[in-house]
Predict the 3D structure of the following.
Amino acid sequence: MSDRERLEEIKERWYSSHFVNNDDIDYLIQQAERVQEVENAALFTHNMQADRIKELEKEQLSTSKLNLLNRIDNLKNKVSSLEEGNKRHKRALKFYADEDNHIKDEWKPLNPKAKTMKMSQVDLDNGELARQALKGESE
């Protein structure tokens, strides 16, 4: 007989005659004790799970903080790199914007047979400063 069937049998006897025997009382006490054990186990399991959830939430928060700190470091490095690029570009722009660098002077070539040429600093640079400034971006 299953536990459910036995319990139904005891209930029928009680409701019909208000009588239960000692075996039935022992059985009901055992069932109550089993229920208490199951409730204690469930409470213990619930508490263990709650503690584990708290641990996982702390770990997740720590991981999130670590990820955020790594992202901040990466952004700082990116900002630093952009600032360096801006400095290179600013130097190049200042050079090309300086009117004195566009004044054509006479230049004697190294070869004595060649003609004297009129060139500015910008002509002599031939865009090298700009290429160097841009090259730093691709590195």
Remarks:
- Residues 3-138 form one domain.
- The longest strand covers residues 105-107.
